Amino acid sequence: MLIPSIDLMGGKIVQLVQGEKKALEFDDFDYWIGRFSKYPLVQVIDLDAARGTGNNRAIVAQIVRRLQCQVGGGIRTAETARELLETGARRVIFGSALLKDGKINTKCAAKLATSLGTAALAFALDSRGGRVAIEGWRKETAVTAFDMIRALEPFCETFLYTHIDTEGLMAGIPMPAVAAIRQATFRRLVVAGGIRTQQEIDSLDALGMDSVVGMALYSDRISAIKPGSTLLQLLPGPRGCHHWPRLSAPRVRRSAGTGRAGLCCSRGH
What we know:
- By secondary structure, the chain is of the alpha/beta class.
- The protein has one domain: Aldolase class I (TIM Barrel, Alpha-Beta Barrel), CATH 3.20.20.
- 28% of the residues lie in helices and 26% in strands.
- It is built from 9 helices and 16 strands.
- The strands form 3 sheets. Strands 1-4-5-6-9-12-13-14 form an 8-stranded parallel β-barrel, surrounded by 6 helices. Strands 7-8 form a two-stranded antiparallel ribbon.
């Protein structure tokens, strides 16, 4: 399954390279919400909240009311997660909160599972150079993604693995790396990090992994589902997961105007 990514920074949709350099920026929220409206799931990340430099909560709230979303970025407590779920989010993503003083915080994970239920939780495995990075990818730890899986698997139903080394480069995601992660867990696995072709998405799907795609969609390297098209029925996938069938669609023509009124007028600072 292809999961479009909406990354928010400074009240706009952005695409960063390896979490640092801004490569693309958009403020026409209605256009992208419409373009992603036929996907069964969209990922929304509040980069400002993840970095502790502000937040885009008002925009996040409006997006999750219009799209089926998993939401992350700066979520540290069950209370914040519950608010997002009550607003309409399908899943909430926890990352930095799962590590304390450089160690995996299983006590926090257990409390989240008890409070919110495992189905609502996606635990982030953001990896750079084989080590987990937290706080908006700005702080590296000695913990590996495999350490996280072993400790946290009882407390969630989804892991989100991001290969930071290739994120935003559109050079392809390293298949051996994600295949090893797939073998390490029986939970639903969503992966991200430079995915650039439908062939990659198909290969990942065949291995039981869903694909988060950002740069390749925003640059039209991969075609988005055309608004008004019809999705087929949800089909059972491997390992007890469910996957949507892959669909090909014509490219959506970008409108000439990029300043239409939309959510960009309501910023969450």
